């Protein structure tokens, strides 16, 4: 790609220097790949940073949010230390699935590893697998491992561990089986 500023439409993925950027929903992106000149001091204003100017290629990739966006959403996946072939494989598969991207719950699942990560900003629930739903009544962070249908282990933030109720398949398992849940979180 020629060195310049670019605005690209309907982009599925970008590969640069061992890092993949995947857009599950094709996106309009801004990409700049130009030579830049400056000093590290001007970048971070730290007194111990070098003040001499350096010159080099700089890669920038961003989504333009516009002015005062309202109820706008976007999603992207970063694959560090990857190859272009692997990025294309992941882009063409459902290996990584975004389960929720709302103001109350953001959740993603790696289908190959059967691992789900979720951030609950408020009470909510997510469908982790075909018949496995998880919900709880307070904010928290969750890392969940399944065998595809059954929960094998749970790791969570302290606020999640102190929740009054966690439900599995709409049943209050946390109240019924508090010892099992706590043992999974240790």
Question: Can you characterise this structure?
Answer:
The structure is a single chain. With 186 residues, the chain is of the alpha+beta class. It folds into two domains: 5-78, no CATH class; 96-184, Sandwich (Chondroitinase Ac, Chain A, domain 3), CATH 2.60.220.10. It has five helices and twelve strands. The strands form three sheets. A five-stranded antiparallel sheet has the order 5-6-7-10-11. Strands 1, 2, 3 and 4 form a four-stranded antiparallel sheet that branches. The chain has a three-stranded antiparallel sheet with strand order 8-9-12. The longest helix is centred in the middle third of the chain and has 8 residues, at 84-91. The chain starts with a strand and ends with a helix. Residues 172-180 have low confidence and may be disordered.
Largest sheet: 5 strands, antiparallel
- Rg over CA atoms, rounded to whole Å, is 21 Å
| CATH topology value of the largest domain | Chondroitinase Ac, Chain A, domain 3
Number of domains: 2
CATH superfamily of the largest domain: Polysaccharide lyase family 8-like, C-terminal
At CATH's second level, what is the architecture of the largest domain?
A: Sandwich
Q: Outline the low-pLDDT stretches.
A: 172-180
* Structure annotation, total helices: 5
Tell me the number of strands: 12
CATH class of the largest domain: Mainly Beta
Residue fraction in strands: over 45%
Order of helices and strands: EEHEEHEEEEEEEHEHH
- C-alpha termini separation: 50 Å
What is the global morphology?
globular
Strand order of the largest sheet: 5-6-7-10-11
Helix fraction?
10-25%
- Structural class, please? alpha+beta
